[in-house]
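User: Thanks for the earlier help. One more: Glu/Leu/Phe/Val dehydrogenase. Can you show the sequence and predicted structure together?

Assistant: Of course, both are below.
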Amino acid sequence: MTDVFEASAEHEQVVFCHDAASGLRAIIALHSTALGPGLGGTRFYPYASTDDALRDVLNLSRGMTYKNALAGLDLGGGKAVIIGDPATGKTEQLLRAYGRFVQSLNGRYYTACDVGTYSEDMDVVARESRFVTGRTTAHGGAGDSSVLTAYGVFQGMRASAETIWGEPTLAGRIVGIAGVGKVGRHLVRHLTEDGATVVVTDVNADAVLRVREEFPAVKVVASTDALLAEQLDVYSPNALGGALTDDVVETLTARIVCGGANNQLAHTGVEKRLEERGILYAPDYCVNSGGVIQVADELEGFSFERAQQRASGIFETTRRVFALAKSDGVPPAIAADRLAERRIREVGRLRGVYLG
């Protein structure tokens, strides 16, 4: 068993949530509340072990600190995981039990959707907690946050295209999308409207079928390996994390990597190898922050137009990351970290630990 204190040394708080009657086994991790309450989704996933779940929630919550800081939000970083198969274990009883644990943190953590959870689930969680966002439009919420996540990724991709080819457009470029579920499907629409040629793959046959029906011109390949074998201009990982391994980087033909998946770099050092190979990496938490911008806007009384306007700022933020990377002589991933850490340091010192 992992030493929790050692593993979470840079985190403020880790909460293990257990309700035997409903079968709830969850972990909530608060990485930092220096900028405000921690905001991050709830992932419902059949982890092989508690150690795997803990490792994931710690990585994801740290990522949310940086994502929220770089997005200019007055929010810190938090995340939650529920251990189990959402197809068989998700019940009203379990979600409401989870909501009680969220409520017990008294506003230090705001939850929302993530892999395995949906706006309808957040409505159930909200019956036990005030600190829930990403709810359905029927309950005054923002609905599906993947809409603006994809929009933000597209803005980041436009900024990347400008850096490489001099124009902020993907027209005439070949873009490979790995994962066409929530985010990837919306991204296909933005790219086809912009004039790009799109190649997709997904392990979920139904997701591929939906995209093929909506966008008949899209090319479908059988696997991620087959996608990587294509002559791509842009590679866009939009499934689970760890997509950019050493082997993937060595086989990439794309000049740009820009996608909606979290924690794309399989390990520290991959960002340097990308740069060595002349591949521009748009840091994942920079370009995929449209979703968190959307659910954060809900806390003010949701306006899609206002949230979309804020998410359009991802274009300029991505530009700033590339500019700092060039001036400091570092990969964009390190430049993004420096911008986020600067804001946490300069603004966070005024706030300290958020009490709720």
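User: Great, one quick takeaway?

Assistant: The domain at 4-64+77-136 is CATH 3.40.50.10860 (Rossmann fold).
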